[in-house]
Each structure stands twice: as C-alpha cells, then as structure tokens.
C-alpha cells in the first residue's frame, strides 16, 4: 500500500462532500438526533444509515451475531468487503452502502469502475482492493482534520484506547442488511423494502444501543438521503432551498478549516500579545500573567466543587 489512512469525523458535511468528490451525484448525509421514525421519514428518499459506536475491543468473537443472522450466500450477491485497516471503516461503510444502492443512486464513473473491478472478488480481497485504492484513500484523507501532533498513518490502537467503528444498514433485494467489515458476512435483519426502511431500522438500532450501559451516549447516526435541495426545488420551497444552500456553504467552510492546523498562527499571535504587553511597561505583562493565573485557579476551584478532579 502506498500510503496510510487518516481518521475522519462522523460529520454530515464531511460525508456529503467526500462522496461528491468521489463522483456520487444528488446524495447527501443528514445527522439524526433521535431514533424517531418520523425524523427519518421527513427526509424523503432514504438509501440507508451509517452508525458510529464504541467498539467493544475485549469482546470475544461469536459464531452467530447478537442480532440478526449471517447471510453467507449474500456475500457473493451484494457488495460486502472485509475491513483490513482501522481508519478506513467510515469511508468503507459509506461506499458499501452506496455500491449496493446503485439502482437508486448515480455513484459516478470511478466508483462504478471500482465495483466492476472488485465486485467478483471474495470479501477479503475486496477489502484489500478498497484499502489500496489511491483514489478512495486520497479522497478520504483530504477530509481528515490536520494535526501536527499525531501521525495517523503510524498510529495503532491499544487496549486502553477508545476505538470507534462505522457500519452501514440498508435495504438490498428487499432485505434489511447490516454491512460490517469486521463480521464474516452481511447480517440479515429480515424482510425490508426501501419504503419500509424507516420503520424497520429503528428497532434494530434500539436493540444495538441497548447492549451498552445506560451511561454510554457516544453514538452517532447519519442518514444517507437524496439531496434535499432537489425536493425543495421540486415543490418550490424557496425558503428551504436557501437554508440548504447556506448549509452547503457552511460545510465547505468547515471542510476547508479541517485541512489546516493553526498551531503556527496561534504561536505567532501569542508572541505578538506578549510583545505588546511588554511594550506597555508599568508591569502590564506581570499583571496580565497574574490575572491569567487567578482565572485558572478560579476554574479549578469551581471544578472541584462540582466533583471534577483535574490531573
């Protein structure tokens, strides 16, 4: 493999512009804040969901899934790829979902060619092919948050790390499938037409979340839907169209910020502030430092009163 995979955020703007850069047309992602069927239904055409959760690293592998059933035969009839690299799981889940909904989604020339090339491979080789795709990896990495402190290409998870994992759920051939590259096969959750998907997926997700302690809240759910601007145009809802265009502009701005780290800028800014304080004279610099120490002490005292102990 010619390069590593960096970590990307589970973010609607990241996912939307990632697939757009790969050539997918008229599709976007929406973050879901509840497990209400109505929240899914109001999004219109839904192609599937991407679920992010804390992976139970100490959990032993089982021959049967905790929910649903392995469909080993389906692995040859749909696009299912084994996960071969940790940081690629978000993009892998997205691509697996889209490649299985090609009848409904224009996945673009590049992903169509990728599917034609890797589609006949066994799941393990499909995963290797995806992980070694320069196009997919470089597109994925272009949305990673820039950090001067961590080399994600060299980092591997340890037992002490919180490891998070992405999986996809979608309706394929009128069945609800869970596509998890860490499992030996797609997991079937029973009959499900694309129209029934909002009703069928919510109980599956509720059972999944119920496996965790009630204190665990670190989940994220993204719906893969038809571009909401299209529906707004079709029904002549100018207000909604403007809102969606504003969100796109905000996503572009946020994605541009992710490509830069601001450590150098902050360092220069701090040096400028210190210089200005020193030039003021009359002890301005010392007073500024003492005020900062006072605010820090006050913050620590407040945290202690709340029962929070800082290391």
Structure description:
This protein is α+β, with helices and mostly antiparallel strands and 311 residues long. It has two domains: 247 residues, Peptidase C12, ubiquitin carboxyl-terminal hydrolase (Ubiquitin C-terminal Hydrolase UCH-l3, 3-Layer(aba) Sandwich), CATH 3.40.532.10; 37 residues. 44% of the residues lie in helices and 14% in strands. It contains eleven helices and seven strands. Strands 1-7-2-4-5-6-3 form a seven-stranded antiparallel beta sheet, with helices on both faces. A hairpin with a 7-residue loop joins β5 and β6. α1 packs across α9 and α8 packs antiparallel against α9. The radius of gyration is 23 Å and the shape is globular. The two termini are 40 Å apart. About 7% of the residues have low confidence.
